[in-house]
Design goal:
The chain contains 6 helices and 11 strands. By secondary structure, it is an alpha+beta fold. The chain has 3 domains: 60 residues, no CATH class; 98 residues, no CATH class; 56 residues, no CATH class.
Length: 241
Amino acid sequence: MLANNYTQASSDHSLFIKKTTTSFTVILVYVDDVVLAGNSLTEFTTIKSILHDKFKIKDLGLLKYFLGLEVAHSSKGISLCQRKYCLDLIDDLDLLGAKPVSTPSDPTVKLHHDSSAPYLDIPSYRRLMGRLLHLNTTRPDITFITQQLSQFLTNLSQVHYNVGMRVLKYLKSCPGSGIFFPRYSNIHLQGFSDADWAGCKDTRRSISGKCFFIGKSLISWRTKKQLTVSRSSSEAEYIEH
């Protein structure tokens, strides 16, 4: 890639970028799978020819599935979801017959290191958290509760496990939900953020959340516990910004 004027991204060494005055092309590589994206069909033809000469690649056409991501194209835009991955996760936990719920968490339940009965199968809980983190790729609606549950990987109670099971019951109600990128949108960057005050009952630290859009397309989201203890809600908001 580098020999063809592509630059390796510093944030992800499997991502290669080529920019000219009229075109923008990216190549994402994972083992023997390659995804091309950009606005120049001429560059696509060129780089595919170069790759084929070296590795005898097979062109699978328009992207439909990649590393568990299901991609659907329409005249209105592109949608990403992880429906099969989600259903496989629910099936592995024997919850296909469970009654779905409408929210990923109960707002009246504040997770903390409690004194309830411990949940002893910690490895299975850790595997669940890893799979939920992968689902966060297209499911911003479970990002907050995943962050909350990820705090209890070593000191785990039955309450924490039950909340994790509720997340799966929520996913069962909408396994095909994901994110949508409209084809036509203004190139305008927008960011939104919020923070509670002393949301963590164990440390009294606040929980921050943020998301960023280019036009109407959600491109980044995150929730995390702040590093310091805020003395007021205003200070918690200030630290977030």
